[in-house]
Write a structure and sequence with these properties.
The chain folds into two domains: 23-83, no CATH class; 88-207, PH-domain like. Helices cover 42% and strands 26% of the residues. The chain contains five helices and eight strands. It starts with a strand and ends with a helix. Strand 7 (165-178) and strand 8 form a beta hairpin. The chain has helices spanning 23-28, 31-46, 51-83, 89-105, 193-207; strands spanning 4-7, 112-114, 117-120, 125-128, 137-142, 146-159, 165-178, 185-190. The longest helix has 33 residues, at 51-83. It is elongated and about 85 Å long. The strands form two sheets. A five-stranded antiparallel β-sheet has the order 1-5-4-3-2, with helices on one face. The chain has a three-stranded antiparallel β-sheet with strand order 6-7-8.
């Protein structure tokens, strides 16, 4: 079997969505918001309001907006660190979706798996369920198509005001290189460094 691309069987494949900007940033880019600000300011002045009172109000608004922005930024950093070692929902959903499709429609026997890879040891084939370009498709290859594999890790560190590292979180994954010039590299997630080493040994045993 040559390297094969399997497309989503329906329109229910999970969609990859980029993170949205904050609500405050979205609001500040809306033209109607600024038109409303100018209009209300004009009405306030026409009704006899003080110009300095108006300036004071906007100053307070800016200070509150800055405080809100700082708070949400720290909250986002906290949640990112908390969830960094976890598999993002889209990747887990995409993996599960295509696993079900391959098992039901392509007679794929899953002997080993991690988010991003399925191994059919009986038929000596591997399915990569996470397309690097986040397209709704998977790539299936034979054991003989695999050239090499390697474990990697990415880390995130936070420091206090004295420069001392407080947290260090790593995300571990594997890269598999195959004989496909159009897309030669595929990645999949591992739980930790021990799991990554286990996958290195597993692929050594299966492919060598």
């Amino acid at each position: 079997m040559a390297i094969q691309t399997v497309f989503a069987p329906d329109n229910n494949a999970p969609e990859f969505k980029l993170g949205k900007p904050s609500k405050l940033r979205q609001l500040l880019t809306v033209k109607k918001f600024w038109i409303g600000v100018v209009g209300l300011s004009a009405l306030f002045l026409m009704a006899g309001g003080s110009f300095f009172s108006l300036i004071g109000f906007y100053f307070m608004f800016i200070m509150l907006a800055v405080a809100y922005s700082i708070f949400t930024s720290y909250f986002k950093i906290f949640t990112t660190l908390k969830n960094y070692s976890k598999v993002p929902p889209y990747y887990q959903q995409n993996h599960d979706y295509f696993k079900k499709h391959l098992v039901q429609d392509h007679n794929f026997h899953v002997n080993y798996e991690s988010v991003g890879i399925l191994v059919d040891a009986q038929a000596k084939r591997i399915a990569f369920t996470l397309d690097p370009k986040v397209r709704p498709q998977v790539t299936i290859c034979n054991f003989a198509d695999v050239q090499r594999w390697q474990a990697y890790s990415q880390g995130v560190e936070t420091q206090n005001e004295y420069g001392v590292t407080q947290n260090s979180i790593s995300k571990h994954y594997m890269s598999v290189y195959i004989r496909n010039p159009d897309q030669p590299r595929y990645d999949f997630f591992t739980a930790d460094s021990v799991d990554a080493d286990q996958w290195v040994a597993r692929l050594d045993a299966l492919l060598n």
